[in-house]
Amino acid sequence: TFFPAVLSLPAGSSATFFCNVSVENDSELEYSLNWYKESNHSQGQKIAEISRNSLQTKTEKYVLTNHTSAFKMEILNLHQSDSGSYYCGLITFTPNKVIESNRSHLVVTAAPENTNPTEEPELEEGNPPDHIKAVLLSILLLAGLVVLLVFGYITVMHRRGDVQKPPSEMAPEEEKPTVVPVPTVDYGVLEFQVDQHAQVPFETYLITHTEYATIIFPEEKPVTPERGKKRQD
C-alpha cells in the first residue's frame, strides 16, 4: 500500500510518502522496492530503488529510508514539474514476481510570495510591537521618578532653609532712626591771646572780665588742636 493518496504542497518544500510491505514468511525472502512516477498518464518511470537489507538510499532529489516493512520516501526541493502520480513496486527474486501498489497523486503549487525568512513582516501603522511599548513605558516611568526626586529635594532644601534662618532675618526690617549729629565742645583746648598793645596798669581794670567761646566743628572733618601744646599768654 502507498499513502497518502493525495498531497498538495508549495514549490520549495518536501513531499513524504510511505510504502507498507507485508509478505508471508518473509524472514528469508529477498526483495527490492522500486519507486515509480507517472506523468500525464504515461508509463511509469523508475526514479529510485532500495533493497530490503539497506537502511537508506539517498540522492540529490530523493531519500528512501527502511523502517522494517515500512519504507519512507521523500522528494526534496519540490518543483511544479514534480507533480504527477507515484507508486512503489515490490520485486521478489525467489520466485520472480512484481507487485505494484496503488497510486498517490502529488500536486506542486506555486511558491508563496515573500517566503524569505529574513524579511520582517510589515507593522501596521499605529500598532508598535510589544517590546517597543515596554521600552516607552519604562522611559516614562523613569522620567516621572526623576521629576518626583527633584521636586522632593527642592522642597526639603527650602524647608531646611526656613528652619535654620535666625528670627532676626525672618522678622521684617525696621526703619533705622535718623542719626542727628550732636556738636561737641572741648573747653580744655581753647586758647586766648592777650592783646599785645601797651600794658595798662592792673589798677585800671575796674571789673574782672571773663570771655567764653563755643566752637562747633563739622562731624565729617573735626579739627582739634593737640592737648599737649603750651599755652600762650
Automatic annotation (TrEMBL):
Residues 1-88 form the Ig-like domain. InterPro entries: Ig-like_dom, Ig-like_dom_sf, Ig-like_fold, Ig_sub, Ig_V-set, PDCD1. The chain crosses the membrane at residues 134-156. SMART domains: IG (SM00409). It comes from the Eukaryota. It comes from Dryobates pubescens (Downy woodpecker). Pfam families: V-set (PF07686). This is Programmed cell death protein 1.
